[in-house]
Amino acid sequence: MTNLIEKLRNHLKTVVVICLALLAVISGLSLLIDSSHAHSWADRYIPFFWSFFGFAAAAAIIGITHVLRRAGIQAPTTFYDRSDATDREEEQ
To answer: Which residues contact 68 (CB under 8 A, 6 or more apart)?
Structure first.
């Protein structure tokens, strides 16, 4: 798995181009779907609605978690280092 990640990092531009091409193909194919039986007005009248909705939802989740992390929910990176040091001091 580590080798795969390293290969993808080494060929980052290729990965980005492939992802953008795949996005374009999927978006283009979504225009071929019949929207006359859509469940909501947004499905019928806004092209790529669910793509935009999914992107906005993901961006909102990332933003909310960033705010929560800044609020102190995430433990500091030295959290376990400090607890190990205090445990060692107690043992002595």
So the answer is: 74
Q: Is the dihedral of CA 92, 87, 81, 71 positive or negative?
A: negative
> How many independent structural domains does the chain possess?
1
Mean pLDDT over the full length of the chain: 83
Which DSSP category does 46 fall into?
A: S
For 17-54, the pLDDT digits (tens) are 999 999 899 888 888 888 788 888 888 888 888 888 99
Quick one: angle between helices 2-10 and 12-30, nearest 10? 90
Give yes or no for a contact between 38 and 44, defined as CB atoms under 8 angstroms apart.
Answer: yes
Structural domain boundaries, residue 10: 2-91
Say how many Å lie between the first and final Cα of the chain, rounded.
42
- Helix (H, G, I), strand (E, B), or coil: what is residue 70? helix
